[in-house]
Amino acid sequence: MKYREIGKTGMKVSHLSFGASSLGGVFHSLKEETGMEAVYTAVENGINFIDVSPYYGHLKAEAVLGKALKNIDRKRYYLSTKIGRYGKNRINYWDYSAKNARISVFKSMERLNVDYIDLTNIHDIEFSDLEQICTETLPALVDLRNEGIVKHIGITNLNLRHFKYVIDHVPAGTVESILSFCHYTLNDDSLTGYLDYFESKNIGVINASPYSMGLLTERGAPAWHPAPEALKRLARKAVEFCKSEGISIEQLAVAFSTSNPRIATTLFSTTNPDNVLKTIRYADGPMDRDQIKKIQKIFEPGYCDTWVNS
What we know:
The protein is an alpha/beta fold and 310 residues long. 39% of the residues lie in helices and 18% in strands.
């Protein structure tokens, strides 16, 4: 496992990290225990960064993760959660107010059984008024950072250009990291176009979803996947190519997404301990650059195509 610092935060994190979104599914007790075992397996095998959100499973992911964290020494991991995006009874809602930011952080700490959060992100800022993010939400998190409740502050977003707008409209040092998903994968490396900018601002980069939300798997994209149909067809073609070559598209996807030393870490999510171990092997193993080039060639007609978040 490699360890890289997130910007200038002092947090040296594993280049592969555990996203707890999968813990937000509808669990019966056995599955919940298995999900907790996945967390233990990740930490025991060198993963030291865990990301979650109250939105995942409408509070469920934080609750299950909190049960697991009771049994793990707090010094063994960095913990990231989010504020701003939520859900109830399968209905999404958003609240980026300063009042809610504070309430949300304290409620997350209760569910997670911790007394501080290493990194608090504003979740999916594309759904917000960016002016509110700059003038209200971020200042509220800065207050929490000054109190030592929140150690570091970040923002998450699908649309890369929004990162730059927010960072440019707040005092230097306000935003310490960004979390981008589906933009450093086999089919889309558009995040690279922003790395110079982030580095110039001392902002760390967290990548998420090496499988591009399921596009880059043998199972294929789930029915709800928002990618355009043309991109889904290219993904199926890439999967079939890998099968014909006797290689794993999942292995190539993880190897590629974790390979860039300018990206601190890449998040993946699973509730299966065996999948944790397999993904760690993918990240720690060699990267076949020739095969990756062939996959990227297949995606060329739709390379860096994206979609609207939902």
